[in-house]
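INFO  loader      accepted 1 record
INFO  loader      residues=324
INFO  predictor   begin
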Amino acid sequence: MAHVTVLATGGTIASSQDSPGVSVANRNVQDLLSGLTPTSVTIDSRDVLKTGSYLLTHANLRLICEAVADALAREDVDGVVLAHGTDTMEETAYLLDLIHDSAKPVVLTGAQKPADMPDSDGTANLRDALKVAAHPGARNKGVMIAFAGMIFPARGTLKVHTVSPAPFRTMNGGPVGHIDGDRVVFTADPVRPPALRIPDQSFDGTRVDIISVHAGADAALAKAAVEAGACGVIIAGTGVGNGNHALVEWVGGAVRAGLAVGLASRVLEGPVQPNYGNGGGADLVRAGAVLFGSLPLSQARILSALLLSQNTHPTARSIEPYIH
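INFO  predictor   done
INFO  writer      dumping tokens
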């Protein structure tokens, strides 16, 4: 019989109303587990946090990483389930995947409807996540998200709908499996790059900001990010990763000053490519911006922050294993 550790961090799955129409994360892990019918999986559990994922800081993410690593290190644990808010689940999942060096699976799940709603999806998603974490076929697949009957790899998976009960989709790919009643079916194996080191306290204060390109944009927000203490910036370019003349000029100076500048796209799917001049992506790359492939913006920011916190500058070579 498989043994799974359940770690709770809050989120909608742990939320109920504290005033009409307004929910907050106020339930603990035992509340989450109380709705489960008996399963063939043995469980131990603990609360790591009790908050909405829209409030998470880098320090919170580090605590989550430490809790997951501690659980994976136990010989009696076969897998870990992390109950988490959906707003930033894609960031936590990717960070955990970057540092994952165990054969044991880590499965994130949550809910789109609070726990006190009669049609809440939290219990069903948690039950499915336990099935995935306990399944022998989940070994060596890294960190996954189990939600609405589907199993997604951490890398490239985003929340793409605000309220749909099936809000996640893997960009430039698809799910790696699904849950069919009591059956867990895997249809693909996620790529497993070399694991990076678990974040330490230096990660807490490593600031990397996202600067979006839009019609009429200039470098004012990029300059403000640096003034606020950012050591890295991800430019959310238009199309295949385009900017403008003001940003090209700023990138050149910022890179010469030692700032890490990455280039991703504000478009959900497809790679960034240096196809255009006259202020486009080709000019941004010539100025020193690093292409982040098809990695989504939120995950490009996480990768850059983790590397910088470990004194590794994000370069084409250092990020290559983690962006495709």
